[in-house]
Amino acid sequence: MTTAEELLGRLAGLDRDGLAKVLAHRPDVLAEPWPRRLDVVAARLASPESVDEVLLGLSLPLTQVLRAVQLCDALSQGPVPLDDVRALLGGAAVESSVDELAERALLWRDGDRIVLLEVLQRNSFRAEGLGQPVADLLADLTTIQRARLARNLGVPPADLVRYFRDGDRVRALFATAPEQTRKVLRDMAEGVPEVDGMPPLGWALDHGFLFGTYYGGTAMPIEISLALRGADHRLPFTPEEPEYAVTHVGTEAGEATSSAAALRLLDRVSAVLDLAAAEPLPLLKDGTIGARLIKKVAKDTGATPAEIELAIDLAAQAGLLLADEPPVPRRGQKAPPPTLAPDPDLARPAPALLYRLLLTTWWHPVPPDHGTDVDAFVRRLVVRLLARLEPGAALTGDLTHLAEWHAPLLPTDDLAASVEAAVAEGELLGVLAHGAVTATGRALLSGDGLVEVTGELVARARTTALFGTDLTAIVPGSPDARLAALLDRVGDREAQGTATSWRFSPASVRRAFDHGATAAELLADLGAIAAGELPQPLVYLVNDVARRHGEVQVLDVASVVVGEPAMLAELAAHRRLAKLGLRSVAPTVLTSTVDAAGTLEALREAGYAPTRHAPDGTILLPAREQSEPKAVLRDADPGDLPPDPADHAERLLAAPASGPVLLRGQLARAMSDRYAGRLTPKQQQLCWQLEAGIPVDVVYRAAEAEPARLVIAYPELDGDVLDVWSLGDHAYRRLELARIDLAQTSTALSRA
C-alpha cells in the first residue's frame, strides 16, 4: 500500500461485514470524534501510532507471516506473490493468516498477490539476521562501479538484481571463491549481515557478495545471505499454540475468594481515603508513591504493602485522590513534598460503584503521554487467555510462554514479571481467583453485566459482627466498608482470611473518643452492627474509658496541663513524663516544656487519657471536612460505551467516501458574513481555534427552542451549515451559521 488514498479505495470496496471486521480489529480508529467518512478512517489506519498498536496484538504466526511478506516486498519492490511467501515459510498454508492480516488493514490481497501497507515496508532486516536488498546497495554505487561489477559477473548492468535473486547462480559462483573468503561469507550469512571496517575480501567485493556502506562498514545483501543458507532454508513458522495443562479449582470456591478479595480491596481503598482526609499522604519529590509511605499505611490499616500500593494507585488514577503540588518556596526555604488528598468536591461513591470504578481504572488506566502501557496490555491479555477456559478452570503450565506466543512484539524486557504482576493484581481485585477468571473478570472482559455482577458481589458483604466476652469482634466472611470502618475506629484489626477479627482495648476505645465520639453514640453504633447483645465486658470498657477520658486536659499554651491536684501530683512525679519538664504552678495546673501535641502523645503513651483543649477551654477535635461534595460519580451511560463496529460500518458506507477540507480562514470569512463583516478580534480568534482543532464554546439559538450552550470542535463547512463535533453530546451536529453566537466568556482548555 503506497498511500492513504489507495487504502481508501480498498475500504470503499468492502461490504458492511468486511468493514466492521477492520473496525473491530482497529478500535482506536473509532476514537472520538467518530470518523465522518472513510477518508478519515483511511488516514487513521495508515498512521504509525495506530499501526504500532495493532502490531502488539498480533500472535506469533501472524507476526511471522507479516515478516515474510515484508521480506518478499523488499526483494520484489512491489506486490508480493502469495507463492513466494508460502515458499519462504516452507510451503505452509498461510492464506488464513494473510486474510487475518488483511482484516486488520495491514495488507490487502489482489488475487494471488499481496500489497503491503506503506508504513510497514522495510529495507533492513537485521533483527532477522539479514541485511538490505541488493537493489538498495546497488543504488549507492556509481555508474562506473555498477558497470565494473556487471563485467565481473558477465551480465548486463540492468540484469544485476535478477542475477543476485537466482540462488543457484549465486551458489555456483560462491563455489569458485577462495576458501578463506567462503568461510567468512558463510559466517556472515548465518546472522551477521554487516561488520565494521573493510575486511581483506577483495573477491567478495568484486563479485557483489559484499558492499561497502556509507559509514565505512561492509554489508551482505539479503539475496546473498538467503542463497548461502541453502535452497532449503526457511523462515520460522509456528502456527500451533503452545500446549498447556488445565486444572479445576472449583467455581464456588473461586467466586467466594473473588468476593473476599473485592471487599477487602474496597476496605483498603476506604481506609486510604480516610487516612488521606485526616492528613494528606506525602509523596516523593517526583510525585510518585514511596515505599516508606506504603509500609506505613499498610501497618496503620493492617493490610499488605501490595494491597495498599494498588489501592493508592487506583484511587489516584480514578480521581478519588488528587495530587497537590506545593507552592514554590521562598528563597532559602525548603519546598514541602507534594501530597495526595481526597477530592473535596467528589462524593464518596457507594461500594458497588466504587468497585466498578476501581475495576475499569485497572482495566483501562490513564494512558501514558508517550509509548505503550505494557502493563495494561499484559493484564488484558492474561484475562483474555484465561477466560477461554471454562469457569473454575486454571492453567498449570507456564502462562508467560503462552503470552509470548499471543503477543511476541510486546516492548518489554521481562514479560514474565509483567505477567506475574498482572496475575497478582487480578487476584487482589477479584478478577482472578486461584488462577481462574471469575464472573467479575468475565464481565469486565465482555463489557456486559458488570453492574449486576459487582452489585451481587458487594451484596455478599457482612453487615454484622459477632462480639465476644473476650473483647473481640469477629466477622465471618468479608465485612462491608461501613462495618469495617466502624470496627477499625474502635478496635485493632488482628486477623484476616475467611474471617476478620478485631480486639478492643482501652487505647483503641480512647482513639474513638479522641475523634469526638461519646459513650452513648459508640454503644449505639456497636449495638447496631452486633448480631446479638453487646457483651458486658465491652460495655464496661467503653463506659470506663469514657469516664476517664478528659481526666487530664492539655491546653495549647506550649503547654499547660490542668487536672485534679492528686492526679497532677502523680503526673509530676511520673518518671516516664520527666522529659515534659512538668512544673506545678497551681493546685490544678502544671506547665510543660513540650508543646501540646507532644505532651498529649507522651501522656497517652504513659497510659493516661488526656483531651486537648483550646485556650478558652473548649475541646479540640480532629479537623473534619465540612464542605458538601459537588460531584457524584455514576455508571457509564450509552455514550460512554465502546462503539459498535457494525453500526459505524453501516454509517460510513452510507456517507460520501471523502469530503471538503476546511481551509485556513474560511470559517472566519463565513462567520464574518453572518455578523455583517463585524467580527470582533475575540470572535476571529475563536474561529481560528476551531480551524486548528481546539474546542470552543458557542451559543446556538435553534428555532422554537431555548438557546443552548455547546462545546464544539472539528468543524466542516457545508454552505450555510457548520458540521461540528459536540463534546457534550458525543455526536456530530449540523448548526446553521445564522443561529450561532460565538461565546465571549471562555474556550475549552484542552483538545478533544
Structure description:
The protein is α+β, with helices and mostly antiparallel strands. Helices cover 45% and strands 14% of the residues. It contains 32 helices and 27 strands. The strands form eight sheets. It has a five-stranded mixed sheet with strand order 20-21-19-18-22, with helices on one face. A five-stranded antiparallel sheet has the order 26-25-24-23-27, with helices on one face. Strands 14-15-17-16 form a four-stranded antiparallel sheet. It is elongated. The chain starts with a helix and ends in a 5-residue tail after the last strand. Mean pLDDT is 85; it is low at 744-752.
Mean pLDDT: 85
| Helical coverage, percent range | 40-55%
- Backbone structural class: alpha+beta
Query: Could you tell me the strand content as a percent range?
Result: 5-15%
Strand order of the largest sheet: 20-21-19-18-22
Sequence stretches where pLDDT stays below 50 over 5 or more residues: 744-752
Measured between the Cα atoms of the first and last residue, the distance is: 30 Å
Number of strands: 27
Computed Rg:
36 Å
Number of helices: 32
Major sheet: size, sense and barrel closure? 5 strands, mixed
Overall 3D shape:
elongated
Outline the secondary-structure elements:
Blueprint: H1 4-12, H2 16-25, H3 38-46, H4 48-56, H5 60-76, E1 80-81, H6 82-88, H7 95-103, E2 107-110, E3 113-116, H8 134-139, H9 143-153, H10 160-164, H11 167-174, H12 179-189, E4 194-195, H13 202-206, E5 211-212, E6 218-219, H14 222-229, E7 246-248, H15 251-278, E8 281-282, H16 291-301, H17 305-317, E9 321-324, E10 339-342, H18 351-363, H19 374-386, E11 393-395, H20 399-406, H21 415-429, E12 432-433, E13 436-437, H22 439-446, H23 450-459, E14 466-468, E15 472-476, H24 481-490, E16 492-495, E17 499-503, H25 506-514, H26 519-529, H27 536-548, E18 553-555, E19 560-562, H28 565-573, E20 583-586, E21 589-591, H29 596-605, E22 611-613, H30 645-654, H31 666-674, H32 681-691, E23 696-700, E24 708-718, E25 721-726, E26 731-736, E27 740-747
Parallel strand pairs: 18-22
Antiparallel strand pairs: 1-3, 2-3, 4-6, 5-6, 7-11, 8-10, 9-10, 12-13, 14-15, 15-17, 16-17, 18-19, 19-21, 20-21, 23-24, 23-27, 24-25, 25-26
